[in-house]
Design brief:
The chain is α+β, with helices and mostly antiparallel strands and 336 residues long. The chain has one domain. The chain contains 11 helices and 12 strands. The protein has a 3-stranded mixed beta sheet. A 3-stranded antiparallel beta sheet has the order 10-11-12. Helix 9 packs parallel to helix 11. It is globular, with a radius of gyration of 20 Å. The N and C termini lie far apart (64 Å).
Length: 336
């Protein structure tokens, strides 16, 4: 007789062991960032980045985290997909929003950036083995989610901020899985970039460049399984998430197609970090990235793009999108 209960329990333990190992690997690189940041010399880009930084600063709350400890600075905003009926609840994602925002603010507000980094250090969530690959090397890239709710991650608890707001502080836990090293970078644009950055930090510059070029190029005539490419005519980054929608859009059956800002932001970040700006269509990518900025200064999670390439609609801004837009314009190219 097979004891399925014991097998399931062992599987659960293994999953969270692997997830914790991803965090441990990130811990080995705590704040040993290899990426550097500086303000853009382009006045227009600098203004856009400043507006996004202002949005981030307005959405930083200080959470009463632990007794006898300083409050934890967290980027918190109303996520309508997290308990839609609870309009008073704010989502405070340490990974990615607060981590990316801490880095994005480095050249703009160094004191606040340092306070956020110190808070993340005290919380133990300065990396998860995936999204922190933007800033330093890791032994492995943990593409596979370890959380049942992979959209919202894992809640560390609900806390009250200094000004009385209720914050659900959340993180995305990751685990390593060899099959995901192959599958996810072929399906999702951001994971293709994370894998390229892993190659880059490991010293495989040619391989990292190839992955970035492949993320932009449309190879479907020779590779039917190519799910990631840049549609230059409409200005949409296509991957597995929106490919079906894009297909109906490109044949005229839909008026608009949804384009996800954070995916493009991660790609632009890598293009700049790897020193590839002169060979790739950066101007079109940049136009689309900043077309997602709202009057508030925040950057929308997604935009609806029409056949003429114009934006027909925008979602609400997120900390993740607002931070990566700044990072994509401020990261210093390698070799400088």
């Amino acid at each position: 007789m097979v004891c399925t209960h014991g097998t399931a329990r062992l599987s659960t333990v293994l999953v969270f062991y692997l997830a914790s190992m991803c965090v441990a690997r990130a811990a080995e690189n705590e704040w040993q960032d290899r990426a550097r940041f500086r303000l853009s010399e382009d006045a227009a880009i600098s203004r856009q980045a400043d507006r996004s930084a202002d949005w981030l600063r307005r959405h930083i709350v200080r959470v009463k985290w632990r007794e006898r400890e300083e409050p934890l600075p967290v980027v918190a905003w109303r996520d309508p997909t997290l308990e839609p009926a609870n309009t008073a609840l704010l989502a405070g994602y340490l990974i990615t929003d607060t981590l990316w925002a801490a880095k994005a603010l480095k050249p703009i507000d160094g004191r606040l950036s340092a306070e956020m980094e110190e808070g993340l250090r005290r919380s133990g969530w300065y990396g998860n083995g995936l999204q922190d690959i933007l800033f330093h090397g890791l032994e492995r890239v943990c593409h596979r989610p370890a959380d049942e709710d992979f959209v919202h991650g894992h809640s560390l608890g609900r806390f009250t901020s200094n000004d009385g707001k209720l914050i659900d502080v959340r993180v995305f836990r990751q685990q390593w899985d060899a099959s995901y090293d192959i599958g996810h970078p072929r399906l999702f644009a951001e994971h293709a970039v994370y894998q390229a950055l892993w190659d880059f930090w490991q010293g495989r510059l040619a391989e990292s460049h190839r992955r970035i070029r492949d993320a932009l190029a449309d190879h479907r005539t020779t590779d039917p399984e190519d799910h990631i490419f840049w549609d230059r005519s409409s200005g949409v980054l296509v991957d597995y998430v929106n490919q079906r929608e894009w297909s109906t859009f490109s044949t005229g059956q839909m008026r608009t197609c949804r384009h996800y800002t954070f995916k493009l932001g991660v790609l632009m970040y890598a293009i700049r970090l790897l020193g590839m700006e002169n060979e790739l269509p950066v101007s079109g990518l940049r136009d689309r990235l900043w077309s997602a900025q709202l009057d508030s200064g925040g950057v929308a999670h997604f935009v609806e793009v029409g056949k003429d390439g114009m934006v027909a609609g925008k979602s609400e801004p997120t900390g993740e999108a607002s931070a990566i837009a700044i990072l994509a314009e401020t990261v210093v190219p390698c070799g400088e």
